[in-house]
Structures are given as C-alpha cells and as structure tokens.
Amino acid sequence: MLPLKDFVASIDRFVVAHRGASGTAPENTLAAIRQSLAAKVQMIELDAHVTADNRAILLHDNVVGRTTGGHGRLSAMTFEQLRELDAGSWFHSDFSAERVPLLSEALDLLKNRAYLNIEIKPPLPDEDYQSRFEIIFRTVNEAEMIPYTLFASFHHATLREIKRRYPESHTAAINIPGDKRLPSEIAAEIACEGIVYGLREITYAKMSDAEKSGLYIGAYVINTEDDLHRAMRYGVRALASDFPAKIMELLRSCNLAR
C-alpha cells in the first residue's frame, strides 16, 4: 500500500467511511469497520479517546450514553468497565454483541487494507490534551501505521503540536463553524496538509485557494446523490459518508471513481 502522501497524489477523489459505515452499522465499532472494508473503501474515519487507565479506544462522545448501554463520562471509566457495555443495540438488535473497541483492534483490521483518519477531539476544560494525543499517537506508531494515517481535529492547537513534535505526521484541520478564513490562511498557522469542511461551508473561492496552495480538501457528510453532485461541482476530493458503499457505487455509475 502506498504511503498516504503518495496515495492522495495519485487519485482524483476517494470515499472516506465516516465513523466506519455508520449509516448501516453502529459507529466506531469493528462491525462498521468491517462493512467499510468489505465495500473496499479507501479510507476510514474514526474517533479516538483515552480511558481512565490510558487505553486508546474508539468512541465519538466524551460520555458513553448515546452509543452504549451505559452512562457517565468516558474519562472516568477504565477499559475493563467500558468493555462491559453494549455498543451496538442502540443501532439495531443485530449488533448487540458489539463492544467499544481498542484503537489497536481497529488498526489490526485496517493494516494494509485501508488508510485511517483519526479525529482528535477538542480537550475538556483543564484536560491535558497533549498527554491524550501521545497515547493515541503511540498506539498508531506501534502498529507501524503513521505513514498511512491522517490526524484531523477541530482543535487546531492539537494539530500544530502534532506537527511540531512529529513533522512526519499527516494532519488536516476540520474547519471551525463560522471561520471564514481561506484554506491557505489556516494552513499557514498550523502547517496542515488538508482542510475538512462541512459540505455547505465550501465555496469556489476556498477551493481555488486550496488548489493554488497545494492543499487537499475534504467534505462531510456526503450521504445522497444530491450531496455527491454538490461536492463534485466544487471539485472536492475526499468524500466523507455514513454510507460509503452507496457513494462508491454512485461514483462508479457516473464513471467518476478513480
């Protein structure tokens, strides 16, 4: 598999499975990852957090209630406590056996099969976000997946710190809603290689600026044919979708997949 830098230079556009195939399986679970891999998605986006006993795991929220059968703050729970929770029944009873996975388990599935996009969540008040990222980074590094991983965040200070400590890492800023700066202005501050926008945030001016600056642009969430055509009008290259298999099929039917 090509390193991420070479992959993005070799392809016009690609689909990113948002939280795995989260439209057809519970988000951030091994089931969602397996469905994405079965659809031959090129990149899978996942959300990483750290437990009270410093284990890197997959979960979107700071609290566990929305996507598990438990309740409370994730940061107060050990991995053993978290592992006891049902992470699938909220989506459908067919997924009752799903548990919150370790990031390392996801990496085992992805290695040599797909690129990884890890979203690093903004810190809570008084949280040591640098320590949290160190645990996540170490887990990816131990799996020898750094050349194939993109770190993204709304918290641009995290991305700046990543680039300072690990200049070989790949980073993308998720645009903060309401931020009207051009992509080149954001990249000048934090040395990122890409910018991720909500689909409705994209303009021709931003796309033109990104192209001139050599920046890669991604958009979320591309779930319908109308969403896809809107993204394609602007020339978006990374298409994040809850239904990656569906969007890949639409690209193929339009002869746009490459």
Keywords, separated by commas or semicolons:
eight-stranded parallel beta barrel; TIM Barrel; 35% helix; alpha/beta; 18% strand
Description:
With 258 residues, this protein is an alpha/beta fold. It has a single domain, classed as Phosphatidylinositol (PI) phosphodiesterase (TIM Barrel), CATH 3.20.20.190. 35% of the residues lie in helices and 18% in strands. It is built from ten helices and nine strands. It has an eight-stranded parallel β-barrel with strand order 1-2-4-5-6-7-8-9, surrounded by seven helices. Helix 2 runs parallel beside helix 4. The chain is globular and about 50 Å long. The model has no long low-confidence stretch (mean pLDDT 96).
Topology:
Elements: H1 4-10, E1 14-18, H2 30-38, E2 43-50, E3 56-58, H3 79-83, H4 103-110, E4 115-120, H5 129-142, E5 149-153, H6 156-165, E6 170-174, H7 183-190, E7 194-198, H8 204-213, E8 216-220, H9 225-234, E9 238-241, H10 244-253
Parallel strand pairs: 1-2, 1-9, 2-4, 4-5, 5-6, 6-7, 7-8, 8-9
Antiparallel strand pairs: 2-3
Helix pairs in contact: 2-4
